[in-house]
Backbone:
């Protein structure tokens, strides 16, 4: 039998090589994706940059943990050859639970097409909503092995909502929209999980610094922080609850909230139970009450009676440590002199606050780094705000209380894993190594 010729061998091995390269690019399955999250010093909003469109543009968006979708300003400067409006009655429209079809009477452009379905778009900072076209465009994002960012991956038809420029009101300067991570099928975690076939799980780790980035992971851990701490280990888990009544600025009757609720059963300050009216801690039939987690509230907000009970207990426990109360500094109601306040690895040495969950052994302990805000050289304020007597949600756990804690939202199992302060483990949310290895 004649041996195959050299050119044939070369050609076939080249072909194999070529096929391998192609299939590698095509079938590269990231295990997780990663985005940096910065903190805006003037608004205290948390921002992330999304690479969208053709040619690619990096747009700054406000991270909205309970938000329904990615929405961006399409009126100004939206220029992309890969934008596609979502056709009425398409599967994209049903995935987005579209509320209707729109007509547009000016020249066609992103955000203005006929036969396109519309969705409600919510600016959860200004509490304003409008409807806008649903569309899709290319989105690129870095994959990760959990340690550093790796190969960039692309979604060709990432669904988002087109907003008018006026909806940007109240967002940090330069922001062009909001990145919704909420409980919908078109939120960022849901789309990435379905596009790349990984678990419907994401994690957020907000930096307390306005000069170094925190991180958002889509997919399961590891989530590694220098020096080699995997924050996906040793998490404490609590059940996630659904509020059956939407908490959005505008919604269709019958819609559930897309925000993440947990069940705080009681609160302790330094091992003493705080008296709280229990009914406020449950979500009632009209969707009032309960506890949610929010990245659009800079500080935790509590219904008046809860706020009073917690702050009274905190003042009492602080006095027992000879910490002196001083005049309030807006927006805070309770402030102290820094005199007699020691310092610890987890911030100022003040009484700790426990949000007690499923049982006495499952609690979220808030230490000084997450409770005290330094407002001047010699004054520290308790970073909790009075939410009034009839708020929609009794306790809204805000950004300051989340910083340097890793929170993992495991949606398939409807549970939240939280790390408690990473400062205990001698790392911070700003310690993800963003130097790409790709
Ligand atoms: C959009 O991009 C095209 C091609 O790059 C360019 O010719 C056009 O001027 C751009 N339009 C706007 C409004 O930026
Ligand atoms: C939508 O259709 C109407 C007529 O039915 C037309 O006047 C209008 O220009 C169209 N709009 C776009 C954006 O194509
Ligand atoms: C999301 O999609 C799944 C299946 O595709 C469906 O069961 C679920 O009801 C949808 N969720 C929402 C909030 O629409
Ligand atoms: C995905 O979720 C399933 C079910 O919860 C779990 O068994 C599996 O380990 C998860 N995969 C990864 C990569 O974590
Ligand atoms: C909360 O306080 C109660 C009453 O003082 C105590 O029995 C309980 O152990 C405390 N729980 C925690 C988690 O500290
Ligand atoms: C508080 O101050 C008093 C009087 O100065 C002192 O006796 C007490 O030991 C101090 N307590 C603490 C906890 O430092
Ligand atoms: C961060 O990652 C880069 C690229 O993977 C690596 O070269 C570098 O050593 C890492 N930095 C640290 C401090 O581990």
Residues:
């Amino acid at each position: 039998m004649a041996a195959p010729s050299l050119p044939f061998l070369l050609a076939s091995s080249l072909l194999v090589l070529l096929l391998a390269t192609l299939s590698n690019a095509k079938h590269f399955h990231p295990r997780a994706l990663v985005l940096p999250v910065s903190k805006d010093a003037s608004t205290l909003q948390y921002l992330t940059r999304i690479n969208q469109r053709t040619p690619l543009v990096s747009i700054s968006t406000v991270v909205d943990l309970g938000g329904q979708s990615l929405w961006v300003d399409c009126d100004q400067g939206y220029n992309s050859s890969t934008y596609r409006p979502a056709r009425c009655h398409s599967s994209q429209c049903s995935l987005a639970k579209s509320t209707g079809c729109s007509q547009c009477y000016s020249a066609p452009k992103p955000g203005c097409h006929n036969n396109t379905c519309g969705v409600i778009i919510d600016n959860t900072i200004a509490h304003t909503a409008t409807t806008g076209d649903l569309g899709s465009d290319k989105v690129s994002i870095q994959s990760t092995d959990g340690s550093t960012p790796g190969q960039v991956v692309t979604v060709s038809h990432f669904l988002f909502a087109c907003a008018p420029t006026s909806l940007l009101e109240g967002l940090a300067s330069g922001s062009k929209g909001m990145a919704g991570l909420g409980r919908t099928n078109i939120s960022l975690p849901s789309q990435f999980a379905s596009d790349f076939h990984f678990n419907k799980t994401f994690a957020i780790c907000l930096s307390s610094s306005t000069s170094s980035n925190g991180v958002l992971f889509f997919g399961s851990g590891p989530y590694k922080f220098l020096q080699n701490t995997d924050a996906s280990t040793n998490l404490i888990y609590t059940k996630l609850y659904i509020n059956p009544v939407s908490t959005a600025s505008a919604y269709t009757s019958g819609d559930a909230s897309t925000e993440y609720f947990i069940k705080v059963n009681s609160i302790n300050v330094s091992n003493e139970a705080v008296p709280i009216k229990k009914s406020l801690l449950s979500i009632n039939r009209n969707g009032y009450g309960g506890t949610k987690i929010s990245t659009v509230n800079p500080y935790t907000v509590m219904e008046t009676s809860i706020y009073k009970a917690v702050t009274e207990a905190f003042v009492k426990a602080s006095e027992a440590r000879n910490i002196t109360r001083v005049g309030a500094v807006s927006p805070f109601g309770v402030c102290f002199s820094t005199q007699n306040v020691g310092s610890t690895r987890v911030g100022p040495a003040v009484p700790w606050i426990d949000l007690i969950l499923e049982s006495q052994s499952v609690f979220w302990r808030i230490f000084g780094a997450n409770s005290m805000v330094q407002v001047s050289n010699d004054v520290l304020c308790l970073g909790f705000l009075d939410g009034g007597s009839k708020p929609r949600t009794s306790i809204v756990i805000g950004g300051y209380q989340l910083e340097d804690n890793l929170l993992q939202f495991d949606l398939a199992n409807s549970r939240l894993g939280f790390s408690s302060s990473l400062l205990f483990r001698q790392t911070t949310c700003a310690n993800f190594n963003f130097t790409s290895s790709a």
In short: Residues 321-322 surround 2-acetamido-2-deoxy-beta-D-glucopyranose (ligand 6) (CB under 6 Å). The radius of gyration is 24 Å. The chain is about 15% helix and 35% strand.
